[in-house]
Amino acid sequence: MQNDEQILEDVSKVSIQLLLQEPFYGHFFTGLIKKVSKEIDTLAVGYHNSLITLYINSKFWTDSLTNEDFKYGGIKHEILHIVFKHIFRYKSFSQKTIFNVAADIVVNQYVAANQLIEGAVLLSNFPELNLEPHQHVNHYYNALLDLYNKFADGKNEEEAEGNEAWKNLKNFLDQDAENQKRHSFWKEIDKLSSAEKDIAEAAVNQALENTLKRVKSKDFGKLPAGLQQYLEEFEKSMVPIVNWKRVLKLFANSSSRTEIRNTLRRPSKRYGTNPGIKVKKKQKLLIAIDTSGSINMEELKDFFNEVYHIWKQGTEVFVIECDTAIHSEYYYSGKTPKTVSGGGGTAFEPPLQYANDVYRPDALIYFTDGYASNPTVRAVCPLLWLISKEGSDLEYLRDFPGRKVKMI
């Protein structure tokens, strides 16, 4: 087995190959700390001394990554998890092991087949799901979660037997599976304070910006289209955006009706006679709260905080909690519910259909992380999408109906 110094020398050789063959990854990789360690059984990204660090297990490096292609692909795999910020999104998902599989589906699409060791998670491992390539991690997570919910309880045993996607998912969810071991350090990142996470993510953002400056003019166009689109959205996200709280307030206020009533309490200002006329604003807002499995408690807290401020303006607020279906509906009375219903995948159609056919509000405000397909239903009332801090980039929602604003 190689000693630590020899392994780090090997890693430097891979770094040079990355710079020569795929400069984007090479430049990004030069800024990472590399550490040979027995704390992990494989290659893994973690956090050490306030820096994102690549941990390398010496046995795995020599016994599993048996040729230069595997070493190249293994390092590229870990780089991509950082670039796509999977290490920071771990906390947002209730089913961590399923998220690990979904994250690997994302990154392994950008690694050549000959650079992936046996047992790597592939899009083709789930034929029955008909997964589209180069989608966001939430897309794959929701599909895998639906598959898990369908078969995990053993009620559909006969159908599960012939389902290749389910068989593969069960294998990948094993705690001893390599993809689960590789992501074990993400739990440590999840335990960091908010301030520490912000510092860590800011460091990754800075590394990405510096890398893009180096490769933008010459090598950016050589990157896969899906990665180019993601990086372009990242650059846009670094540009200061509109004051979303002001947009929300203006949207809510502009969605009001007026009601004219006679009153005996004051004379008409125009004629000096009773009865006078009183103009009263009326608002009837439908607020959809995304309660799917990808929404964490912090996001729900942010959502209901804004619902409270809307309600305080004297607006009639009717709330529906929904994932792929509407699970709960009620008039909001100023109190945040202790629990919410949901936890499954995401579909945007049910609340829009509810607005059109049942409640008929002056406007619909949809609080969500934005990770689902473009809705096929179009709301007949004004529609505002409020995207959570950790949610989708607005570019992902560009074809959605209505106005879109990111919460920051």
Concise account of the structure shown:
This protein has helices at 4-21, 23-30, 58-63, 68-83, 86-89, 96-108, 137-151, 157-161, 164-173, 178-182, 186-190, 194-215, 225-237, 244-254, 297-312, 349-359, and strands spanning 33-36, 43-48, 51-56, 256-263, 276-290, 316-322, 326-331, 363-368, 383-387, 403-406. It has 408 residues and is of the alpha/beta class. The model has no long low-confidence stretch (mean pLDDT 87).
Task: State the distance separating the first and last CA atoms.
Answer: 49 Å
Shape: globular
**Average of pLDDT:** 87
SS summary, helix count? 16
Using only C-alpha atoms, the radius of gyration works out to 25 Å
Low-confidence stretches: none
Structural class: alpha/beta
Number of domains: 2
Task: Write out key terms for the chains shown.
408 residues; alpha/beta; Rossmann fold; 2 domains; seven-stranded mixed beta sheet; three-stranded mixed beta sheet; 10 strands; globular
Walk me through the structure:
This protein is an alpha/beta fold. It folds into two domains: 4-237, no CATH class; 244-406, Rossmann fold (3-Layer(aba) Sandwich). It is built from 16 helices and ten strands. It has helices at 4-21, 23-30, 58-63, 68-83, 86-89, 96-108, 137-151, 157-161, 164-173, 178-182, 186-190, 194-215, 225-237, 244-254, 297-312, 349-359; strands at 33-36, 43-48, 51-56, 256-263, 276-290, 316-322, 326-331, 363-368, 383-387, 403-406. The strands form two sheets. Strands 4, 5, 6, 7, 8, 9 and 10 form a seven-stranded mixed sheet that branches. α1 packs antiparallel against α2 and α4 (68-83) crosses α6 (96-108). The longest helix has 22 residues, at 194-215. The protein is globular. The mean pLDDT is 87. Residues 286-389 form the VWA-like domain. Residues 53-273 form the Putative metallopeptidase domain. This is VWA-like domain-containing protein. InterPro entries: Put_metallopeptidase_dom (IPR025154), VWA-like_dom (IPR018698), vWFA_dom_sf (IPR036465).
